[in-house]
Design the sequence.
């Protein structure tokens, strides 16, 4: 009965979405305040009913209700409770229900917290958001119903993919979807602005908090997925340029460009056309990622291979929203005025350069991701586009962008002084040269470009706070005055500094972990030792251990340094009987920001030897500390009062017909 309640809750949510998509929009055209206010109630009602449906599916998983087909295919009574809950979104149907839930959460948030929005614009935004909800609710009910019953009900389920039975994959999808779906608000604002003709600095002020929140969650989601791949897949890698990884990375790149472009639009009323286009493209890339992961065209650990009907349905959704919004953009963009002028050397100019590099980088990733699929569809031939292509195309663009990052905040609006900005970065340049020289000296014989990358990373890390140093007059006034100036700075300035610093930390971690890692692979028996990075890894014992729904083959090691036991580490091969799958549970020993990574390979039953792979990864944790710091910077920026109170007395700019 509870499953049926969940199903009909989705039906009622669809009905409310249809009302929200039509009535407020019609009210906005007639300037009828009563009709426009319908959007608030229907948005909240959608949230209630989709939450009810999600709770019903969660209940089916927790109680192991094997009369529900989705539970049969993705759960097992012996599975730990935490993975019964996370199994709700560890499959195609449940993940799409989570998508719909987050979509209506954002819609309800606009209804509840968008009180400073003009009523017409708010009605149009919620109407556009409702049409996106209609598409995905229809998709759930027609092609991916998570509440389908099976009769007779089996006694047991088929268990969840063992790779997804991990806390990292419990957190990764919700964070990723909060980013993906959060960009739908920026999309709705862009389409509503084109319809309403209200595109000005006030619009940019309203859209930035929603874009920033989505970017923040997507940053954390990508980082969590990267860390999961690092420790769970047993390879010790953190990024593989997998098409599904690229599917989340492209919206992040475009969303980063959108944040910076919206800043120019807010401050100078410039880049209007470009900002609107970026808002459309960012969400379009999110929809493209959904299509790639759930259409069956990709095979990946975290891609759901499903029947072609589902892929076709999502492709239609993609075509309607992307094609429709771009068509509307094409019709209305010609009537937009670009706004204020600025010199090439200015903060606006730096942000334009930022956008050029980011969008070009996005294009390179898009081409590398889609070209093999297009070639296979056209000719039947298969090619692999991997790290060499992406490193050769994306890498130089990323390094050029990072070199430019510290200059931007130091340049004045409208017209800046590049020489003056460079003078304020002398200490960052000094730190970069010193770090590069030390890296070259210490790691002689390593990759030649690694010290150069280290220098860029230090330039970004130190230079990220150059604006803070300049505005607080650090070392030029008394400490008390410096603290008072620091306390008076806008939180957005602090947020940008931390976010840029996080970029530098990530580059430093990637460089060190890839250029100077040390790997050893050997067959080991109990009592034998392996030397790696000046440390001795001694295999002490092996054995079997039973888990709730798996069996572990465990190897325990003692790690010694200079003859002294430092710690013990455990690694295992985990066998899930129901799925007949084996996973690798890596052992990790942390030394500051570096780690020793230990994973197991094949076991030789004849003599009890086991293949052991040990890898020393210097500064590897900076790869994920960097994104966390970026997200922290985004959170600080969200707390900026200018974003919380909205735009004061927004200008009323109307679209003019193109002549």
Sequence:
């Amino acid at each position: 009965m509870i499953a049926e309640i969940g199903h009909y809750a989705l039906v009622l949510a669809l009905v409310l979405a249809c009302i929200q998509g039509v009535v407020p929009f019609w009210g906005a055209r007639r300037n009828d305040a009563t009709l426009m206010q319908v959007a608030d109630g229907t948005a909240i009602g959608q949230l209630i009913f989709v939450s009810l449906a999600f709770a019903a599916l969660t209940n089916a998983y927790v109680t192991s209700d094997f009369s529900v087909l989705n539970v049969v295919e993705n759960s097992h009574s012996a599975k730990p409770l935490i993975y019964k809950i996370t199994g709700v979104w560890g499959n195609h149907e449940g993940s799409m229900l989570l998508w719909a839930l987050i979509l209506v959460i954002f819609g309800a948030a606009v209804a509840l917290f968008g009180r400073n929005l003009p009523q017409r614009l708010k009605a149009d935004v919620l109407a556009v958001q409702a049409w996106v909800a209609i598409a995905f609710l229809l998709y759930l009910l027609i092609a991916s119903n998570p509440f389908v019953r099976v009769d007779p009900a089996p006694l047991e389920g088929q268990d969840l993919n063992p790779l997804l039975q991990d806390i990292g994959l419990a957190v990764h999808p919700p964070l990723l979807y909060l980013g993906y779906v959060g960009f739908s608000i920026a999309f709705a604002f862009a389409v509503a602005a084109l319809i309403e003709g209200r595109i000005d600095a006030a619009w940019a002020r309203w859209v930035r908090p929603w874009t920033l929140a989505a970017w923040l969650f997507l940053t954390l989601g990508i980082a969590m997925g990267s860390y999961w791949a690092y420790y769970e897949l047993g390879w010790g890698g953190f990024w593989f340029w997998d098409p599904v990884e690229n599917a989340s990375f492209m919206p992040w790149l475009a969303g980063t460009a959108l944040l910076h472009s919206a800043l120019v639009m807010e401050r100078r009323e410039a880049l209007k056309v470009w900002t609107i286009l970026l808002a459309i493209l960012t969400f379009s890339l999110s929809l493209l990622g959904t299509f790639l992961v759930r259409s069956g065209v990709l095979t990946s650990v975290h891609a759901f291979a499903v029947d072609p009907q589902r892929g076709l349905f999502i492709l239609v959704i993609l075509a309607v929203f992307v094609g429709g919004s771009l068509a509307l953009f094409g019709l209305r963009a010609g009537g937009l005025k670009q706004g204020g002028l600025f010199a090439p050397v200015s903060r606006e100019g730096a942000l334009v350069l930022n956008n050029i590099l980011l969008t070009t980088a996005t294009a390179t990733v898009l081409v590398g991701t889609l070209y093999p699929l297009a070639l296979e569809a056209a000719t039947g031939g298969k090619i692999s586009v991997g790290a060499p292509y992406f490193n050769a195309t994306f890498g130089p663009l990323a390094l050029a962008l990072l070199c430019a990052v510290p200059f931007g905040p130091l340049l004045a609006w409208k017209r800046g002084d590049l020489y003056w900005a460079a003078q304020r970065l002398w200490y960052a340049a000094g730190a970069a040269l010193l770090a590069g020289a030390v890296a070259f000296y210490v790691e002689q014989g390593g990759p030649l470009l690694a010290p150069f990358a280290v220098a860029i990373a230090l330039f970004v890390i130190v230079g990220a706070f150059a604006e803070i140093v300049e505005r607080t007059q650090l070392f030029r006034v008394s400490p008390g005055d410096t603290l008072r100036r620091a306390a008076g700075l806008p939180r957005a300035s602090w947020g940008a500094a931390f976010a840029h610093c996080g970029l530098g930390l990530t580059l430093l971690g990637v460089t060190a972990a890839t250029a100077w890692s040390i790997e050893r692979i050997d067959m080991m028996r109990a009592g034998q030792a392996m030397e790696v990075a000046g440390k001795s890894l001694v295999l002490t014992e092996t054995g079997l251990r039973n888990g709730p729904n798996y069996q572990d083959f465990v190897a325990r090691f003692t790690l010694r340094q200079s003859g002294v036991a430092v710690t013990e580490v455990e690694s295992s091969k985990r066998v899930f009987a129901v799925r007949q799958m084996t996973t690798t549970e890596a052992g990790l020993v942390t030394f500051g920001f570096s780690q020793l990574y230990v994973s197991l390979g094949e076991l030789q039953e004849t003599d009890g030897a086991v293949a052991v792979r040990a890898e020393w990864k210097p500064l590897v944790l900076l790869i994920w500390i960097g994104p966390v710091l970026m997200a922290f910077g985004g959170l600080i920026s969200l707390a900026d009062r200018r974003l919380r109170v909205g735009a004061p007395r927004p200008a009323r700019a109307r679209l003019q017909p193109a002549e």
Q: What stands out?
A: The beta strands are 518-524, 529-532, 535-546, 551-561, 564-576, 581-585, 587-591, 594-603, 610-617. The radius of gyration is 27 Å. Confidence is low (pLDDT under 50) at residues 301-305, 645-659. The chain is about 60% helix and 10% strand.
